[in-house]
Amino acid sequence: MWKSPSSLSSSYPLNISFFIIHLFLLLLIINQHVVVVVVSSQPLYTNSRWIVNSKGQRVKLTCVNWVSHMDVMLAEGLNHQPIDAISKSIISMGFNCVRLTWPLYLFTNDSLGSITVRQSFKNLGLFSSILGLQANNPSIVDLSVLDAYKAVVASLAKNNVMIILDNHISKPGWCCSRFDGNGFFGDEYFDPHLWIQGLTKVATTFKATTNVVGMSLRNELRGPLQNVDDWYRYMQKGAEAVHAANSDVLIVLSGLSFDKDLSFLQQRPVNLTFSGKLVFEIHRYSFTDGDTWSADNANQACGELLNDMVSRGAFVLEQGYPLFVSEFGVDQRGTNVNDNRYFNCFLGLAAELDFDWALWTLVGSYYLRDGIVGLNEYYGILDWNWFNIRNSSFLQRISVIRTPFQGPGYAEAHPHKVIFHPMTGLCVQRASLLQPLELGPCSEAEAWSYAPAKALIVLGTYFCLQADNKLGQPAKLSVICSDDSSKWDIISDSKMHLASKLQDATSVCLDVDPNNVIVTQPCKCLSTNDTTCDPGSQWFKIIDSTRATKITKSFLQIKPIIHFLARNFFGSYI
Hints:
This protein is α/β, with parallel strands linked by helices. It is 30% helix and 18% strand. Helix 1 (12-29) packs antiparallel against helix 14 (550-570), helix 8 (192-205) runs parallel beside helix 9 (228-245) and helix 11 (298-319) runs parallel beside helix 12 (337-353).
């Protein structure tokens, strides 16, 4: 065991300083970046809770939703930008996948699927959109809407975008309500036999398109007819039909109650004749919980979200199935309090559970929605004209969940922890042992262990995180790791406050100052009666990781040198 400095002779302060200076110089010398290139190799499979390629390496789906199920039956935005330009922008924004929606009738109603794009727009009086299509995508204007859908898939595949084909609805139009006739098997527009025919046709149509890596069988099952027995009856039939038509694609099954609830799987597993292809999906928005995020205490609301998402969806990870959170999103203007508080919580959970996901939405504006021509979609990553990114800081924040923290093929370093700050999308790091801890890219995150004694210790060293005895001061690294100020409890309903105690027993929490320096401040928003407080700056998640970063690689290399210096400058350790 490392000897506490308090047990050393008075001559050791100089040695400690000399040791730290030498260690600092070594850190400056041994400082290299790690670049990992992952090439997806289709088809994809499942290996327990992970989606993997044919080489067995994890492929994390980091998708964006592209709407193509509306009344016009054409992927949105083609009146503003060429198909290939949109496909390329998806990759350039950091996504590797599109969840491309489709209405059932497009593939099962020949008279509907055979009308031209031009005629579909004329029928809805969208003459200005036709002019935009002619300018940006003249080759599709006189294609049938079915062939135009194929052209979009082909463009995505050509640009190396993976595709999940999502049967979003039966009758083309906006989704969803409990009484729209599209919600559950047996509804007015939801004939289960026709649905299976449609799934089979889609699976067959795109069998040769290897970038079509999965099919989501139905979006947001809902309504008064929904029941568990019919869910098993028809979802299993649909899965078998798709697999028979195209055994390469992943089969994605949604839950009940607008895809919030998979809890019935805890008692009764899905029974299929094949394996290695099954994925489950759920959805979650701030409005899933009404105005809870702005009306109630944010810590309490976050605790409720965590418990609900795990108990009704994320438990499938423990059962050995991948979880695809195929819809989540926020108002990109950043002014929606409900969305902002929700997303700080959601992003922490997304990093912790490291699940696959699809953001809602790519769409900057719609041809026609809710009777409004050119309706602006404020949840859209692109702006109204589909040219500029609506909120670049949001893309930076979600970049942390694009890269896997762990999984097959990512055992690059010993298991360790990183400390993630959801409000910024950054992780705790340090430039040196002599400078304050600060937030920075998670690819350069500090690697920690979180001991049973609740000390956060820098991996490969004897230094632990310690609260300064003055409020508002930077947290520091110390070799005194048994004091209360070096113990960090995970507190509050959100499980995202890291709390310690000062020498006078004052409770403090990790926080971030305006310069992104890690400091300690009084813990805030802990009272359930406080509904106006925003705890976002004090929310941190301790994440499991096996990914090598610049810091972990450096420390693994110098650990033997640290031991050598410790022996020479401190005597001995056990």
